[in-house]
Design a protein that fits this description.
Helix content is 78%, strand content 0%. The chain has 277 residues and is an all-alpha fold. It has one domain: ABC transporter involved in vitamin B12 uptake, BtuC (Orthogonal Bundle).
Length: 277
Amino acid sequence: MKDHNTRVVVLGTVLLGAAAGVVGCFTLLRRRALMGDALSHATLPGVCLAFLLAPSLGQDPRSLSVLLCGATISGVGGIGCILFIRRLPRLREDAALCIVLSVFFGAGIVLLSVVQNSSQGNAAGLESFIYGKTASMRSSDAMLIGVAGTLTVVVIVLLLKELTLLCFDEGFAGARGFPVLLLDLILMSLVVAITIVGLQAVGLVLMIALLVIPSAAARFWTHDLQRTLLASGILGAASGLIGAVISAVLPRLPSGAMIVLVAGALFLISMLVGRER
């Protein structure tokens, strides 16, 4: 922990794990564990398009801000597609999530192939967004994760009553005059925000784990929502901390995958010894 880069990585992964754990609770309660997966995969086409279009706009194609901009636009597009498809009378919500996940990821793979065959060189700058590259995290990246995570938690605290009602009884929330569609959009936007800032750390392939595993593990400790949110945040932060430290001590082990393995171990422990198992 004496190394500055190690401290930055640990701080960034702890903040990411805590924020993802809190947001993930609501996706789990809404029975939308696949939503994080769909929205994380939906960012890939945006990242690839940003890489391809950046030179024509006078930008560095490997700039983190440029790639995150593309991921944001693509992620918002994924939200729109999910909301549109789920309104179709003959399709269930899980179908909408699967369609968006597969189509957007397929488009991303095609664009990734275009990038690899383009004159701009290989796609080395994009690999960290697919598989994660925690070791390359800078202070500005950790700060971005901290700001995004803090804003996300603040929004959840301010809308806790509304989001709770949405998760447990959407029909009743609509009957009481709550803006169900707007609340749903806000919740998905929070998932996209955390997913985008987490791409650099664990990549889009493993980001779903930080959204689902800590919140699932927290359910073995308590049934109270506020305590579940707290426990999920703690378990997510612990996953980031322990995984990053192990990866720093054993440099050959990839940080993103190690964080997910630690989260899985904490889930197993919670399942075996949790009070509400």
